Amino acid sequence: MSTELKENYRSWQNSSWNWYAELQFRRYTIPSYDAQEAFLKGYFSDAAGRCLEENGRPLRVLEFGCGFGRHLKYLHQMDGVEVYGCDQSPGMLSVARTLLLGRFPELEERIELVEPDQRLPYEDDAFDIVFTVSVLIHVSPEDVAGRVKELRRVARSRILNVELPPFTHSYLWDDAHGGCWLHDFPRLHRQAGPCIVEVDGDSLAPNAVIYDVACDGGRDGLRVLQGGKWAESPEQVQEARLNILLEYSKLCRGRAQQNFAREAETSRELRDEIRELKRRMRTLRVDNRSLNERVKKREQTIRRLRATRALKFSYWLANHPLLRPVAKTAFDALVGIRRFLPRALGLERRDGGDPRDSDHKAPDDE
Q1: What is the mean pLDDT, run by run of 10 residues, along the chain of 366 residues?
Q2: What string of DSSP letters covers 243-276?
Q3: Distance between the two ends of the chain, CA-based, in angstroms?
């Protein structure tokens, strides 16, 4: 493995409860998730019945890229299915163990952490079926052929890939995923060895394409199911695959238009909200200025009232027939105290200056 991990692998290795929350939201808003689970339940139920009838043992299944264990949970509860899982994300597997091991402790030994571009920790032909769900579309173009060969190595009879159609645009608008959504899975499987690849473009259309690969008969071929008909000749296969891509492009275009419409509506709402906030701010500034002016007027009125009250009190005190002699005596006493205290305390200046005057310095003691 290279010393520097690719960005698309790093993003998934760092995923944990945050992506689990996003997945739960998608499950309740996108019907294709339920359709995937319904298809896989029927597929593995039929395969388990055949394996039990032909081999007298449970069907051994590996999910490459099991993530949070969404499919492990219900497959483990199916009769005749012995399911295993592996993933490159420690965070996702930590969530899977938290969610599953409380009810199914036996899964502890069946969940493995693997590297995104190294050999899987399983023997050759260890599983009857190896399957992926929206996993290989996130593998880098330079690594995907090696991953397909590893899946072929550990799969005894079949490989099942439930992946999005190859399309230049995806919901991951990130340069780190450039090219990852353009893998030609039938070609990759046939390059890994002789096999019969059946491309089902109907069962989960238009959200996903099913690649059912039979790799135990030594035969080689490609069939495409589209519009209820199987295409087997090269011309029919090419046309059917183009039709699958066309249907998916229509879906993406429709979703993009819906997203743009929602974003435009949200932008309009935000602009209206900003205008309303600005209007309120202007109103508040006007109100604030008005309040400040009213406060200033009130303060001026209070100062005038205090000054008027002081003048009235002084006039009343100076002209009251009983208090006027008392006020004069008190005033004379204050004047006398002011003159007597400096001499009594030795603070009178020899030069006759006022000791409180900062321009005069006190004489030095002899």
Answers
A1: 70 85 83 89 95 95 95 95 96 93 93 92 96 91 93 95 73 54 87 91 84 86 82 77 74 71 83 85 81 84 80 68 68 71 64 50 44
A2: HHHHHHHHHHHHHHHHHHHHHHHHHHHHHHHHHH
A3: 98
As beta bridge partners, residue 113 has 87
212 closest CA partner among 161, 155, 166: 161
Q: Which amino acid is at 248?
A: Y
180 domain residue, yes or no = yes
Q: Would strands 196-200 and 209-214 be described as parallel, antiparallel, or unpaired?
A: antiparallel
Task: Identify the sign of the CA torsion 238, 239, 243, 249.
Answer: positive
The verdict on residue 330 lying in a domain is no
Full-prediction pTM beyond 0.85? no
Instruction: Please answer whether residues 61 and 83 qualify as being in contact, where contact means their C-beta atoms are separated by less than 8 angstroms.
Output: yes
**Does a structural domain hold residue 169?**
yes
Number of domains in the chain: 1
Rounded to a whole number of angstroms, the CA Rg of the chain reads 44
